[in-house]
Design a protein that fits this description.
It is built from 14 helices and five strands. By secondary structure, it is an alpha/beta fold. It folds into two domains: 161 residues, Rossmann fold, CATH 3.40.50; 118 residues. The relative contact order is 0.17.
């Protein structure tokens, strides 16, 4: 994260006593399935020449990015997890497919704090590493595919009304690992950008950093709520002592109805923590497993 990006988040001046962070893909917009199945995964098959095992690439990448606790993770650790799972699968080994080793990507992900295309481009130019060059080609191709494909996807029913209600008493910010260009375009396309104070994207650091820099020292922890559909959203909330409301994958409409009703009322009344929060987290963790079933 650049100093300018960090300063923009720290500069948020509270307009209310409460802060709500909102994930975007899969929580506000019904884009997760579209982006993964039509943009991310086809480019994995093409760039890394995995046509021979495309069925297993799709199955594995969908598990990682949509149906597991890695849902919503930054694209580079998610790609690494997908390739690791593929190398372990007996069906893949039985077909003689060459799943690329990813040691250079593993090292870069472990050392880099700004996991985006600019940092990866700089690393490729510094090292000339051929596999990282492929990863960069894949990531740029994904962005192009998303720009071409990701238009016209509406927010889930009830989102706009819920955010309008919440915004009357809380400062709202977007907390996402989507690149800023795509994120801003999606929120502006539907006039949703007027509902939030800040749009925090991949370039602004991790989701945990977004909450830390915008909320730290400005709002009591029990006055901060994170809304998301992924385990990483929960971890960002817990890492900052904030509360968490899950948007259940596959039950998004009902989740937003519940939030607009009981969830927000409890948050503003100070009765969200405790038994209500515990029940929400138990149900959420159950639907996002850690281990695949293949």
């Amino acid at each position: 994260m650049s100093n300018a990006h960090a300063a923009a988040l720290k500069a948020l001046v509270p307009g209310h006593d409460f802060l709500i962070g909102i994930d975007s893909d899969g929580a506000v917009f019904d884009t997760m399935e579209l982006k993964q199945k039509e943009c991310f995964i086809p480019q994995i098959v093409r760039v890394f020449q995995l046509q021979r095992i495309s069925k297993y690439v799709r199955e594995t990448a969908e598990f990682v990015n949509l149906y597991s606790r890695w849902r919503g993770a930054n694209r580079f650790p998610a790609l690494l997890r997908t390739l690791d799972f593929l190398r372990e699968r007996p069906e893949v080994r039985g077909r003689g497919a060459q799943v690329p080793g990813a040691d250079s990507l593993r090292k870069w992900v472990s050392e880099e704090t700004r996991l985006g295309n600019p940092a990866l481009q700089a690393k490729v130019e510094e090292t000339g590493d051929p596999f990282l060059r492929q990863v960069l080609e894949w990531s740029l191709a994904v962005n192009a595919a998303v720009a071409a494909m990701g238009q016209g996807v509406e927010p889930f029913p009830g989102v706009r009304e819920c955010l309008e209600k919440a915004g009357a008493r809380a400062d709202l910010i977007v907390v996402s690992q989507t690149p800023l260009e795509a994120l801003g375009r999606e929120w502006r396309e539907h006039g949703m950008d007027r509902l939030v104070r800040l749009i925090c994207a991949q370039e602004h650091g991790t989701k945990s950093e977004h909450l830390e820099l915008t909320a730290g020292g400005k709002y009591p922890p029990d006055h901060v709520l994170m809304i998301g559909d992924a385990y990483g959203d929960l971890q960002a909330a817990q890492g900052n002592g904030a509360l968490f409301f899950p948007i259940h994958p596959g039950k998004e409409d009902a989740s937003w109805q519940d939030l607009q009703g009981e969830g927000l009322e409890r948050f503003f009344a100070g009765t969200f923590a405790g038994e209500y929060q515990r029940c929400l987290l138990e149900a959420f963790k159950f639907i996002l497993p850690e281990n695949p079933r293949w």
